[in-house]
């Protein structure tokens, strides 16, 4: 049976990485322009929107890393120890 999850995830991941690279490049260009003209409100709004989208992408990537880490941790059979629970109560 063919599993579409891996190839589909790869396509989404690639498109997000490409979008991230494009947005970083755009943010750098806008930052250079805003340094020359700091009073241009439209430029600053565009820079803010670009940085906001980059932040969203980074949060999505971080959530993915955390989920994969938890799955790997649980898959390897590790469990919380008494020491862990005691430190959480403190």
Structure commentary:
There is one protein chain. The chain is mostly helical and 90 residues long. Helices cover 83% and strands 0% of the residues. The protein is built from three helices and no strands. Helix 1 runs antiparallel to helix 2. The chain starts with a helix and ends with a helix.
Instruction: Please describe the biggest sheet, giving its number of strands, its sense, and whether it closes into a barrel.
Output: none
The Cα radius of gyration reads 20 Å
Task: State the order of secondary-structure elements, H for helix, E for strand.
Answer: HHH
Overall average pLDDT: 80
| Fraction of residues in helix | over 70%
How many DSSP H or I helices?
Answer: 3
User: What's the shape?
Assistant: elongated
Give the percentage of residues in beta strands: under 5%
Distance between the termini: 49 Å
Poorly predicted segments? 1-11
Label the structural class.
Answer: mainly alpha
> What is the strand tally?
0
Topology diagram in text:
Layout: H1 5-36, H2 41-75, H3 82-89
Helix pairs in contact: 1-2
């Amino acid at each position: 049976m063919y599993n579409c999850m891996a190839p589909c995830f790869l396509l989404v991941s690639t498109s997000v990485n490409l979008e991230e690279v494009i947005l970083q490049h755009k943010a750098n260009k806008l930052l250079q322009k805003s340094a020359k003209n700091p009073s241009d409100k439209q430029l600053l709004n565009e820079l803010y929107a670009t940085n906001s989208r980059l932040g969203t992408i980074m949060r999505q990537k971080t959530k993915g890393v955390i989920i994969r880490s938890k799955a790997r941790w649980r898959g390897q059979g590790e469990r919380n120890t008494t020491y862990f629970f005691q430190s959480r109560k403190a």
